[in-house]
Structures are given as C-alpha cells and as structure tokens.
Amino acid sequence: MAEDVLYIGVDLGTFRSVMVSSDSHEEEELTVIGTPKDQIAKNFLKRDVLFGNEALKNRLALNLFRPLELGVIKDTPDDRKFIAHFITHLINLADPEDYDRVIAVIGAPAEASHVDKSAIFDAAAGSVNAAMIISEPFAVAYALDMIEHSLVIDIGAGTTDLCRVYGTIPGPGDQMHISQAGDSIDGRLIEEIQRKYNGAQITKDMARRWKEQYSFTSASTPDEAVLVDFSIEGKAMKLDITDCMQTACESVVDPIVENVKLLIAQSNPEYHDQFRRNMILAGGGSAIKGLGSLIERRLSDMGEVVVHVVDDPVKLGAMGGLRLAMEVPEEMWSNLTLATR
Length: 341
Description:
Blueprint: E1 5-11, E2 16-21, E3 26-30, E4 33-36, H1 39-45, E5 50-51, H2 52-57, E6 62-65, H3 77-92, E7 101-108, H4 114-125, E8 130-135, H5 136-144, E9 150-155, E10 160-165, E11 175-178, H6 182-196, E12 200-201, H7 204-214, E13 227-232, E14 235-240, H8 242-250, H9 253-265, H10 272-277, E15 279-282, H11 291-298, E16 307-309, H12 316-327, E17 339-340
Parallel strand pairs: 1-7, 7-8, 9-15, 15-16
Antiparallel strand pairs: 1-2, 2-3, 4-5, 4-6, 8-17, 9-10, 10-11, 12-13, 13-14
Helix pairs in contact: 3-4, 5-12, 6-7, 6-8, 9-11
C-alpha cells in the first residue's frame, strides 16, 4: 500500500516565517519566541513557550528571542534550542500526525554557513522523515520557473540576499548577503525623522508600520505628502515625513547595485546578458514602490536590465520549497545539498 506523504515548504525569515503544505495549509508566523520570565508568568500563560504574535502580545511577561535576527542562527545554546522549537511549531501547524511520512524543504539565508544549515537541519530532524535545506533566493526562482540564468535580489528584514541561479543548486560563490535590508531601512527612517524633528519619539515598530504603508522611491513618488502621527516631548503631532521616507527606502539601493554588478562580473561572460535581463526582486522589501525601476535605472550603465518584481513576496519562498519537495525525488537530494532520510 502506498504511503500517505505530506510535503512541506518553509521559508525561515528573520522577521516572518511561512509554511505551506501539499494539503493546502498556509501559515505565517513572526519569527519570535517567548518564554515566561518566572513561575507567576508561567502559571498565568499556562505554557512554556509562545510564538509569533502571541509572544509579542504577552511580551511584558516573557523573555523574547529572535533567533534569526541577523539572517543566521545565533550561536548560543538557547537560540539553537528555540529555533528547534520554532521549526517544530511551524511543521505542527500542517497537522503532520495525519500522514505516514513528512518531507520538508526549508529555505535558509543565501550565505548561511554549513554550521547554520546543520543547525536548521538538526532542528527539523525531530519533526520530519526527510529534510533538505536550500537557499531562500533559489526557492524564489524555483517557484517562478526562472532557474535558467536569473539573478535574485531577496530583501528580507535582517539581510538582502543576492544569488545567481542557472539550473542547479547555487554554490557559495553564487551567493552573497548584505546588511542593508528592511531593519536598516527602519533604523534610517528613525534617524532621518529625528534629525528633521528634534525630540521626535519613535519606536522600531512605528517605523516598520509607516514603511509598510508608505514606502516609495524617486521612481514612484506619492501623489500626497506622507503624514504620520507621533509625539514630540509627549505632545501629539501630525508631521510630514515624505523626504525622510524616500531617503530611508533608497538607502538600500547603492549596496544592492554594487553587489549585483559584482555577481554578474564574476560570472561566465557568455551569460551576462541573460543575468541582466532576468533579475528577480523578492522579499518584503520588494513592496517598496518604484524600487525595481530605480534599480534598473542605477544599473543601466551595464546595458539593458530588466527587474521582475514578484507579486507575492511573503509566500513565494515557501511555495518554491514545497514545489521542490514534490518534484525532486528524495534519492536525488544527497547530490544537491544537506539532506537525510
């Protein structure tokens, strides 16, 4: 009798992680883990570990961990333990107990070291029968059917991952990451606002919300000024942050352009033209209005450049992992990347 197999794709993000499965489960979870601060909190919460929004909601009673804050697993026993809890939690959201076998493909940051991938692999091993770790940019390209000479720019919260893709699992030399990404945009936005409005009181969460709602570049300027509510010395005010928003959003462009040029220059010259015309802008940062067009403009000195901005940046990496899990036989995994049975 044939085994009943559940296939799972996971995108582990520094801010948000996504799980999709072959039986139509789709789950998003903030990559945050919380443990009770003391026995009183434990009795109140009635749990040893909380995840995502639920952890944030109860954060005053918890010790919070962000184990992928910089795009890699922090090298502490606690963070390794908690990423294992988190991966198990994501996989359990797919109801794996209803199946004979569970197979997962997990997206990791593009330049994650072998140690990082081993830690992710070990964390998943207790929840699945087989697992494979791939780079998140490759998962994006696979989901889009664009693995023939493409270049992925995946702007996450902690890092921007860049990756050359050409029909096979990319090697270390095909990938790089830079620290200019979503979190750095938030930090720059706070700096610009406080420089413009002395005494402005802004949290990282406020900056992130404003960015998600109003972000833009010079290639797509808004019809109206960006006006937001915040406090200066405790007094509520509504102020114009249009110029601050543009400066913050464009702060990632020069590092991306510089490293894209490097990746193309270091590739086989016969395929430079294809890499230039098949760039994929993905990740949460791809939602910045006009960013794809601005990158094209800044790369125009290389020749004709085409940047494809993805439609669903949140789920795309996980969908690529799911598709790979379903299409590539397990016996081939050992020839591709870190995997087990």
